[in-house]
């Protein structure tokens, strides 16, 4: 990675799939980009990667992210490990405070995501019996025993949805009263789902840490391959609050089809925004935001008003920085050497 410059055209905050894809696009489209990432995140916790075409299941989320970081660095992006504590300024000149350092950028992209609210233990490890993505992981429970944990409307509906994959579905209330409405209750009771009222008192796993069963207060033990806790999520929206971005009633940042927020020059992508929390969806949002930013920032073509009867000076082309040009030369040289070998 090259020495980090404090001044950029684009600053991406958050190093998950959405932020990384945005940085990939803005860098490859010729814009000096810094990605600032505090580490962690939902994708980094994944034991396996699902539903990403071309990426097989044995690739962990952390491997996916580290490979992507090296990829964007090879194109000329900078990466910074740190927490953005504050953002100042306006479109065309934002200042981001990261520890003792300050970075400036013409456009800011928030890709800070959210954290799933975890139920109280005993619980299996994430990915080894505890799953947060229905659309990613339902496939692995075909003809397997599965639990859904929670008392809200979502938990009841997810339990019914899982009947599309298996006939062994338990809904675990863990000693709490259900919060879903009367209509949902009638609907749920008409489906072949066991609603377990008792609290979990113990858990059994195999030698590799994969869930085998839960023990309950009534003395029973039930076997599960895994399941889904439905306890909600908390958006990492501190910077959205600083910038006073418009948000949905649920707390997500409101965006248009290209990730633009209510504040000019600020974009948001991935789990921080409304919609399906999926890696391919996040990547698509990052790509669209990156292209939209390119349309905002690219130098050419000049409009007739900008030209004002003059011609473009050939010396002003190409409009990419020396850093990105050098990265492109390095990559071209490496690819040529690989082809010769």
Q: Residue ranges: pLDDT <50 for 5 or more in a row? A: none
Output the number of helix runs. 9
Radius of gyration (Å): 24 Å
Remind me, CATH topology of the largest domain? Answer: FAD/NAD(P)-binding domain
The CATH level-2 architecture of the largest domain is identified as 3-Layer(bba) Sandwich
Strand content: 15-25%
Would you list the SSEs in sequence order as H and E?
EHEHEEEEEHEHEHEEEEEEHEHHH
What average pLDDT do the residues reach?
94
- The number of domains is 2
Oligomer state equals single chain
Q: What distance lies between the first and last C-alpha atoms, to the nearest angstrom?
A: 25 Å
Q: What is the helix content? A: 25-40%
What is the general shape?
elongated
Instruction: Kindly name the structural category.
Output: alpha/beta
Offer a concise description of the structure.
Residues 308-341 are annotated as: Disordered. The chain is an alpha/beta fold and 341 residues long.
Structural notes for this entry:
- This protein is α/β, with parallel strands linked by helices.
- Strands 1, 2, 3, 4, 5, 6 and 16 form a seven-stranded mixed beta sheet that branches. The protein has a four-stranded parallel beta sheet with strand order 10-9-8-14, with helices on one face.
- The longest helix is centred in the last third of the chain and has 19 residues.
- Helix 1 packs parallel to helix 2 and helix 1 runs parallel beside helix 7.
- Pfam families: Pyr_redox_2.
- Keywords: Flavoprotein, Oxidoreductase.
- GO terms for molecular function: oxidoreductase activity.
- This is Sulfide dehydrogenase subunit alpha.
């Amino acid at each position: 990675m090259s020495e980090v410059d404090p001044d950029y055209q684009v600053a991406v905050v958050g190093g998950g799939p959405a932020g990384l894809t945005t940085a990939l696009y803005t860098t490859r489209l010729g814009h000096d980009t810094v990605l600032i990432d505090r580490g962690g995140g939902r994708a980094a916790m994944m034991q396996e990667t699902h539903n990403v075409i071309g990426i097989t299941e044995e690739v962990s989320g952390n491997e996916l992210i580290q490979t992507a970081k090296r990829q964007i660095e090879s194109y000329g992006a900078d990466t910074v490990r740190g927490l953005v504590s504050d953002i100042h300024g306006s479109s065309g000149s934002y200042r981001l405070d990261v520890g003792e350092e300050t970075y400036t950028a013409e456009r800011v992209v928030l890709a800070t995501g959210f954290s799933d609210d975890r139920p109280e233990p005993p619980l299996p490890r994430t990915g080894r019996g505890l799953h947060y993505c229905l659309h990613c992981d339902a496939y692995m429970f075909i003809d397997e025993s599965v639990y859904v944990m929670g008392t809200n409307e979502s938990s009841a509906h997810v339990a019914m949805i899982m009947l599309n994959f298996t006939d062994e579905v338990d809904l675990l209330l863990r000693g709490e009263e259900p919060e879903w409405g009367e209509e949902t209750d009638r609907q749920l009771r008409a489906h072949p789902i066991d609603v377990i009222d008792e609290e979990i008192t113990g858990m059994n796993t195999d030698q590799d840490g994969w869930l085998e069963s839960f023990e309950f207060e009534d003395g029973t033990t039930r076997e599960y391959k895994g399941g889904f806790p439905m306890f909600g999520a908390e958006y990492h929206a501190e910077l959205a609050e600083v910038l006073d971005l418009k948000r949905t009633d649920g707390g997500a940042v409101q965006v248009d089809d290209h990730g633009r927020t209510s504040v000019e020059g600020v974009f948001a992508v991935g789990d921080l925004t409304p919609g399906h929390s999926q890696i391919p969806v996040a990547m698509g949002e990052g790509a669209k935001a990156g292209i939209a930013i390119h349309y905002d920032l690219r130098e050419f073509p000049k409009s007739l008003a900008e030209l004002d009867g003059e011609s473009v000076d050939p010396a002003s082309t190409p409009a990419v920085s020396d850093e990105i040009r050098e990265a492109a030369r390095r990559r071209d040289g490496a690819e040529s050497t690989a082809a010769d070998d």
